Amino acid sequence: MKVVQTKDTLSKIYLDAVRIRNQVFVVEQGVPLTREIDKDEAHCVHFVLYTNKNQPCGTFRLLPLTNGKMKLQRMAILSEYRQQGLGKLLVAEAETFAKRQGYNTILLGAQATAELFYEKLGF
Asked: What region holds the N-acetyltransferase domain (predicted)?
């Protein structure tokens, strides 16, 4: 498994992130596409988790804020890869990246179904 990142909204990495988000949020959860792709896309760092066979399986984005804060958003794992610890891996990646960039706080807003997951990770 490897996690790669981009700020380039024309890159393959970004397009893989959008495909995962579309499948999870739009197709599975019924979120309107107009809400899923928003004005913050170009301001975020987008991350994609790839399997050892180079298949995209998870994603999240970090939105830089002020005062040393970043916001973790749009975290999604494709259904066939869930319950394997990949969400925890992605949160750890977000924390490591934020610290390396000089941010000291990660904020997030989670769906009710994901609250326990984030609470277990200290959020």
From this structure: 1-123
